[in-house]
Each structure stands twice: as C-alpha cells, then as structure tokens.
TrEMBL record, chain B:
Keywords: Cell membrane, Membrane, Transmembrane, Transmembrane helix, Transport. Residues 89-304 form the ABC transmembrane type-1 domain. It holds the Pfam family BPD_transp_1. One of its GO terms (cellular component) is plasma membrane. This is ABC transporter permease subunit. It is found in: Cell membrane. It is a multi-pass membrane protein. It comes from Rhizobium fredii. One of its GO terms (biological process) is transmembrane transport. The chain crosses the membrane at residues 30-56, 95-114, 126-146, 177-200, 283-303. Belongs to the binding-protein-dependent transport system permease family. InterPro entries: ABC_transporter_permease, MetI-like, MetI-like_sf. It comes from the Bacteria.
Amino acid sequence: MGKRLLQALIASAALGVVMTHAEAKTVIQVMHQGDPGWVTTYGDVAKRFEAANPDVDVELIYAPHDAYNEKFSAAVMSKQLPDVMELDAPFLANYVWSGYLQPIKPLIDQDILEDMTESNVAQGTYPIDKELYAVGLTDSSVVLYGNRKYLEAVGARIPKGVDDAWTREEFEGYLEKLSKLEGVKWPIDTFRGYGIKTEWITYAYGPILQSAGCDLIDRKTWKSVGTLDSDPCVNALTMMQKWVKNGWVVPQSSGTNQFFAEGHPAALAFGGHWIYAEAAASMKDDIVVMPLPKFGPKGVSPNGTWIWGITTASEHPDIAGKFVSFMLKDKQYRDYAKEDSAYPGLKSFAADSPLYNVGGPMAVAFEQASKTAIARPPHPAYPAITSAFMGAVDEIFNDGDVKAALTAAAEKIDEDIEENDGYPPFDDQQ
Amino acid sequence: MTLQQPALAATAALARPARRRDKGRLFQEIGMLAPAVALLTIFLIVPFLLSFWTAMTNQPLVPRPTPVRFIGFTNFLRILKDDLFWISLWNVSRFTFWILPVQCGLAFATALLLHQKLPFRNFFRGLFFLPAITSMVVVCVIWGTLFQYPTGPLNQVIGFLSAGRIQPIDWLGDPNWAMFSIVLLSAWQAYGFQMIVYLAGLQGIPDELYDAARIDGANAFQRFWHVTMPGLRPTHVFVLVITTIQAFKLYTQVAVLTQGGPRSSTETVVHYMVRTGFEEQKLGLASAVSVILFLIVLVIALLQRQLLRRFDV
C-alpha cells in the first residue's frame, strides 16, 4: 500500500515536471467576479480561446463581488496584477489615475470599438485624457417594475415610454394608494436587502438625487459640500426617509425577492435590469416595466457595469487584447448573457437581444440609456464618495437627521480629496 | 493572559544559570528560545512597530501618484474626533457588557450540568461543543435566516408562543435590536470554549473537599457556594478576561450580517479599522486605529494582571 502511494507520488511529480516544461507558453491572467453561471461561462470562453491559440494559456482568477476591491488591492500590493481585469465602471477613474490600466483602443479589434453604444464608451472613458480604458459586452440600467394587477386596482397610469414617466406627485400618490390595497404588504422594494455597504446604494439612489436637481459631488469643482448637502438632495432623501418611515419600503432583512415571491408582497420594484428574467418567469404577464419616475426637473437613470480593462503590468497586452476581443465576440458567452437578461452595451448584441428592442418588454430600459442615463462621478475619489454616501443613506433610512448625515458625508468626501492633494490633475479641471 | 506565564517562567529559568555563569546551559537555553523569539520578532514585534510608523503617515493601501508623507499624530487626532470611532467603541463596550453574563452564564450553567454523572455525558459534552467548532461565517448565515423579518423562524416561534400578541421583531434591521441579536448568536457560537474551561476547573476541585463538606452537614447549595465557587475563582477570572478581550475584537458577525448598520448600531472598532483600511484605502488611518485598539486591549490585560494578583493565583 505504502509502496503504491510512493509510486503514485513519483508519477505525479514526474508529470508535474513534464507539465511545467510544456508550459513554455504565454500565460494571460484574467481576474473576474460573477455568479457561478458566469464563472463557468468564463472558464468555457478561456478553453475555446486556448483551443484557437494553442500557444497561450489563460489563467482565470476569481474574486468574489463584494470583496473585489480588497482582492485587487492585495494583487497590487504583492505586484501580482493580472493581465486582464474585470472592473466596476465607476472605479475606472481611480484605477487609471493610480496607473493600473492602459489605453485599450490599440489592443482591441476595431469592429468592437465601432460597435460600442455611447453609454458603453462613456463608462470606459477616463475624463482627463478622454481615452478608452475598458470595454464590455454589457451595460446596465434600473427601471421601475410594477405588478399589473395592483396597478390596475389603484387606477395607475402606465407610462408608454421614458418621456411620460411618472412625476414625483404621481409616484408618491400611487405609493400611498398601494399601501392601503389588500394583498400589498409593501408598496415598493428598493432592494435594501442587498445590504448597506454595497454599490447598489450609490448606483440606484444616486439618480434620484440627480433627478431632483443635485448630485453626489459638483462635477466641475469636484467639491461635495454645497452639492450633496444642498436643499434638493436633503429634500430627495427626506422623501425616501418618509417612504421608509411609512412602512412603504421592503425592509433590509426581508430579502430581495419580495416583488416576485409567492403572493407578490411588494407592488413595485425599483430594480436592476438583471432581476427581469427571474421576475418575469414568476409573474408572467403581470410584470410591467416602467421608466424611473421624474423626481424633479428631469428623469435620470443609472448606467455602468462590470467591464474589461488591460493592466499596465501586462507583459503581453496584445494577447490580452486579443482575449478580450475574442470573448466579446464569443457566441456562447453572448448566449449566456442573453439568458441572464444582460443589458446590451454593444449595438450588435442589442440587435440580437429581442428583450431590449423596440416593442420588447425591456425596451424602456434601453430607451433610458440614450435619454436619461448619467454615469456616476468619474473621479479617482469615487471609492470615498460611494463609501460616504452609503453611510449617509444607512443613517437616513434609520431615522437619522437628513441634513446632518449628508453634511457629514460631503465633508468626508472633500476631506479625502484634500488629503490626496486634489487628485491632480483633477484639481485644476474647471 | 495566561499565555504569558510560561514565557515568564522561561525567563526566570534563563536568569538563574546565567548567575551561575554556566555558559554551556546558557547557550543551550538561548538556542531553545531563539526560534520562538525570532518568530515573535518577525511576526509580532516588527509588524507592530511598522504599524505604529504607518500610523504616522498618510500611507494609502495601494501605491498612488501622490507622495507618502509623515504627518505625525494627525491620524490619531482624526480618529479621536470621528464620532463613528466613539460610537464603535461604545458599541463594543455594549456588546461586551451583554455578552459577558450571557455567554459566561450559559457556559457555566452547561458546565455544571455536564459535570453531573449523567448518562451519555460525553456525548452531550461533544454536542454542546459543536457550535464552537463550527465556522462563525456559517453560523452567521444560518442565524441570518433565523432572524429574517417578518416571517423568519424566530419571529414565527415568538408569534406562536405569544398567540400573535408580540409583533415580529426586525432583529438585524432595527437599531435597537441589532446588537442584541449579534450578542445572542455570538454567545451561542462561542460558549463551548468557556464551557470546556469551566469543566476543567470543576474537575480540578478535589472530591475530598466535597466529602468533608458533606460530613460537616453542608447541603447541596452550601457545597456549591462554599466549595465549588471558591474553587473556581481563578477559572472565573480567566474566563471573564478572555471573553472580554475576544469581545473587543468583534468583527466577523458584523461583517457578515450587518456591515456595521443599521445606523452604525453594530459598528465595531475592528470593523471600523477594516473599513478605513480596505474600503477607503487609508492604511495610515487604519494603522492608527489598530494602535489605539492595541492600547485598549493592553489596559485590559494589565487590569487582569492586577485582578489575578488580588485573587492570588
């Protein structure tokens, strides 16, 4: 028995030597996040790429979504940056400013560059040099989902497109009516269940501020005090605090499926495009997709998603670019994305996604991209901005003083910018 | 901490032969100490000095184009001026104040129970110790489901027992309840360790004392109060101190379940440190928090030494 074990050990060691010898190939490291389905899909894409390019080995490095930046920081510190990395669009400015990403245009197939939607180009562009640093197959949006039965019961007007979105008065009126309707436990789910330290907060609630006429930070002077704590913002978050106080919003501890769970306890859902597939499967014809309401002078929707960049540490940027191009064109990758109700960021993918085409159930979501989408502030202080805003929202949703919470957050943001000497050259961008 | 005792004994042993100028033994003992001292230096002392140095700079987590500067005590002042730090310190104290009686009481009670000559005693000892060897993250996920609002199992049981008179409680989502909920699950997860310590303490009390007490006509309660309790005095002190220090380092439960919310009601010092270091990427500031936490734990450890001396162990 012991002898056989020894033999096996020797055999595997010998095999190891052979394998390392055979690995005189180019290795491309790809760091990514994603649900198990996506992880499998990336694995398959890598295999197909290796089959097409026998001299290249693709090494996938998975990092969980919620700890992605920590893992990335660890890679930076240990000088083990991957060649290709998936990144959340609003963090792009920080990564480029810190010097981790290189311009991607010369490395990617021309037809992909031409295929990108405006919003997709915007999410991958660094505002200082206006260069493209990342591309993606997809983009994202948030819409207002409704339950047809409940909406008809309160006689709600169903908007036909982005232009006739509900106004704030209409929206709050319906919330109140829905709160009294039999069978409705909560008028709306704003997905507090994602947690209080999640990008969802800034991504989804930021547009409510912008729609109300303010922002997280002034995008010319890059100062938050005077903007995030201005009256329109205080007003907008006081409104949201009121919804929570009235018991209109699904509480954080009730999960993220109350809109389409058994019995449909939540009447509306202020939700990402990604819940459509699951919600539609459960609600069939009862699901209504509407544009986000106008909380002030204009309607605003979020955009941006996880996109692919090539790091400055890459020794083979050309091959890294080849891999990204290969993946974005890969048929099975696109098929999986479609199945996941992914929001198109490439025109060819949009044409191939009946869900988002004119007349499709999610057409409104795609219409928002060109009419109301505003990217999150493209500034290297974004990690501090989003962290401060998350803290303020948690404080406000739990009955805290709105003005005080926003002022504290704005001061925290300005402090971070000051500490980094204004993140030059962002400081003299007027 | 009792961990220090063997080290002290070793130093004492080192001092004696040195006086006798027994060089051979001295070298032997230095050689034996060397690995431990080297490892402690590399992994404890140097990192601590480094973190103290980092705390005096504006070092970011990852390299940035802006220069790293020496900024003296600015980080410390910033922390001491930050309300959130004081809230987190207050929360940890609150947590400690609650978990001490709950966890140690539970551990003591089960230890007393399992010290009786019951059938299947060893089986129950193993069973009661199970949560302690379960990963805290797993425990958190399970309790997170139990705590669900408004239809989680815990709320349903309470609703059933009170015939619907007690409204469902938002255990983790209500600032008034969140820390208490964390206390409940933490005590349940960790009491096994204290229970084992108490069991060991109970077994260390000689049977003769009980026999003598019985002959003197002491009843069960008197035997407990005048034999068991004094016999467990050092155990009590040890358990209280170790639980306090562990409580001050509360992090996992908060990171998994509440991320410090709602409304900072479960923010803890360690969670605050991890957030400033990793989320806001301010390594200098986070190091300053760690130095402050070290000082706090040091004070507790010193107080413990005083206590130990008073109880004469």
